[in-house]
Design brief:
With 377 residues, the protein is of the alpha+beta class. Helix content is 32%, strand content 20%. The protein contains eleven helices and 15 strands. The strands form four sheets. Strands 1, 2, 3, 4, 5, 6, 7 and 8 form an eight-stranded antiparallel β-sheet that branches. The protein starts with 10 loop residues before the first strand and ends in a 7-residue tail after the last helix. The model is unreliable at 1-39, 57-67 and 79-83 (pLDDT under 50).
């Protein structure tokens, strides 16, 4: 199997079948099963290739998309000696297997001259695509038009490891959150719509001079202008816009707008302020736990109640106390959008960005943290 010429030296070529074991009569299947038990790995068969994956922190098979692994091996089932493995032995890297859209995000980052996207999306070390798995092939076989439009391909990508934004507090947290918002908005205006804003997708890394840089992570559920039109509901319930938790939205009758993602950023901000102290999840007196158990309809009602009354009774953690004023200002704007002011119901992207997010942040964040710019890395 021919692999990308851009492979890092850390990618090793090896033979999966030990000649000594083979002479002793150990079959490839028995060896594979033994190997799986030893490495606690799982197997995925794709288009004549077998993926051997070693999960990062789990003892159950990978589920869904965007699963992280410590090691990924690719076996050619037509030739068992044709094997390529990537092991993220470097603790600063992780391996991800997911259905990706084209390199749209990284192409935008490469061309970015204003620093809003570049350095604020995951840094790719190595990648391999299984072209045979392209959804365009399925659409072509079904005789559908625009088969190439918004196609997805099963990919293995190695990224530089990132830390969760919840590790940060005070101005460092606020700055990283704001950097990610700017990146997200710039990508949205370029036609990449993330649609899955949650704490787990807001990450950071630290530069050599000690600054924290925010990174928008995980584009598995993103769409582009080229993606076939659809109104499917995406995201994690506690962080989704209230309008997307309605019966109409679940039935696909509500278009996912920029302001919905902007609202998600506000819910994430309030969530972290209330539940994290000095980068650690509170063990006692932690509010909003029940939101993780609610379905969309239940969470819809709870969030409306939170905006109307409960937010005024909430006490942020000490390490986020200074940021709570911004959270309250943003939540007040969201509350008004679901209230009596019809002009706030549907906003142009720029208006939602400026009114919901930029104005409250600018009143608080020092200029040095408001416009973080990296010239080179």
């Amino acid at each position: 199997m021919e692999m990308s010429k851009r492979m890092s030296k850390r990618v090793v070529i090896t033979h999966p079948i030990d000649p000594i074991q083979k002479r002793r009569g150990l079959s490839s299947r028995r060896l594979r099963d033994s190997r799986a038990k030893l490495l606690q790995c799982f197997w995925i068969t794709v288009s004549g290739f077998m993926l051997e994956v070693v999960p990062e922190k789990t003892d159950s098979p990978p589920q869904g998309v965007g699963t992280h692994f410590k090691r990924v091996g690719i076996w050619n089932q037509q030739n068992w000696e044709d094997f390529v493995a990537y092991s993220s032995g470097d603790p600063e890297e992780y391996v991800e297997v997911y259905w990706s859209e084209e390199q749209r995000v990284h192409d935008i980052a490469e061309k970015d001259t204003k620093g809003k996207v570049k350095y604020h999306v995951p840094e790719m070390v190595w990648s391999h695509k299984f072209e045979e798995t392209s959804t365009a092939n399925i659409r072509t076989a079904l005789g559908l038009k625009d088969a190439e439009r918004g196609r997805r391909i099963l990919s293995i990508i190695v990224f530089k490891k990132l830390d969760p934004i919840t590790d940060l507090s005070e101005d460092e947290f606020l700055s990283a959150w704001w950097q990610i918002i700017r990146c997200h908005y710039a990508l949205w205006e370029c036609g990449v719509h993330h649609r899955d804003v949650s704490p787990s997708n807001l990450m950071v890394y630290r530069t050599s001079d000690g600054r924290y840089i925010g990174v928008l992570n995980d584009f598995d559920l993103s769409s582009t202008r080229d993606t076939p039109s659809g109104q499917e509901r995406t995201g994690i319930v506690p962080f989704m816009a209230i309008e997307l938790l309605t019966k109409e939205a679940i039935e696909g009758k509500v278009q996912h707008l920029y302001q919905h993602d902007a609202e998600s950023f506000i819910w994430v901000f309030a969530w972290v302020c209330l539940r994290y102290e000095e980068g650690r999840l509170l063990r006692k007196g932690r509010p909003l736990d029940e939101w993780l158990k609610f379905d969309a309809f239940q969470c819809h009602g709870k969030k409306l109640g939170f905006l109307a009354t409960h937010r005024h009774k909430m006490i942020p953690s000490q390490s986020h106390k200074n940021n709570w004023d911004i959270a309250m200002a943003c939540l007040r704007i969201v509350y008004n959008s679901y209230g009596d002011d019809p002009s706030l119901r549907t906003l142009e992207n720029k208006d939602a960005f400026e009114k919901w997010l930029e104005t409250p942040v600018r009143s608080k964040l020092p200029p040095s943290l408001l416009n973080v710019r990296l010239e080179s890395m």
